[in-house]
Amino acid sequence: MIVLERKPYQLEHTAVCIGKFDGLHSGHRLLVDSIRECRNMRKVLFTFSFPDSEYIYSVEEKRYLAEKLGIDVYIDCLFGEEFSRMTPEVFLQHILLGECGARVISVGEDFRFGYKRSGDVRFLKERSRVDGFELRVFPKKKMFGEEVSSTRIRRLLREGNIRTVNELLGQPYFIYGTVCHGNKLGKTQLNMPTANQIPPAGKILPPFGVYASRVYVDGGVFDGVTNIGIKPTVPGENRAGVETHLIGFDSDLYGKDIRVDLCAFLRTEQRFSGLGELREQMEKDKQKAQQLLK
Questions:
Q1: Residue 188 pLDDT class (50, 70, 90 cuts)
Q2: Does 184 have pLDDT greater than 60?
């Protein structure tokens, strides 16, 4: 997959889906699927990054997921001062049609763009007749009586409703990133080695606790137990992180990129009297996770 982050993009004959795409949820998949149907065209996902905002998936996670969804070119545009002042006409003519080479453009029915959000679907429909590109517009998807939206998913994620979050996303919520060194207590004193990840700033995590998970690494898939939190039983100050025990896996993971899918909530994070009590509880968590993941 080609990844482009700065202009000029210099593409030709493409099908482009465009939006903020936080989470790339099941509603967004309608747009992605529509361009995947375009034969003999490169599939482009054009998305935006907003400084200092909170998000379901980081730029790296969205790029990773876009590739899994069959996107050829991923463009992440920083929504800064210059871009915010761009008129809808300039964005369409110079960016989408010019540099991106769009022949098909796929958007949601509420898509707004350009200076003060003055561009909309009506504008694109009028321009499609003049400029000769095909416009595909999709209504909001509804699930469980409400619209599927990133705002709704972010709220449910903060509340810890991981089951509904996964339904709305169309796949399990995941943390993707490089395994880093921890305090090694899992391996040396708990007989349950773990892979440690530090989520990027701004990524929304569910409430601190223990989750049944599935872990993707080196082409394999493993059941796991994931703790999100600060490990209150471990002495010292621990920053919030993600720590996962891969069941049946004992190789070195340091420096490797892994994807951890959160499948079910097991319990809240808690302080134990010592490492012995923690070890007993971790074994119970492991057994419960295996039962849930069957």
A1: very low
A2: no
Q: Cis peptide leading into 51, omega within 30 of 0? A: no
Q: What was the pLDDT predicted at 84?
A: 83
Residues 76-107 pLDDT 10s: 988 877 888 899 999 999 999 999 999 999 99
* Dist. CA 274–CA 255, nearest whole Å: 30
Tokens of 186: 């899992």
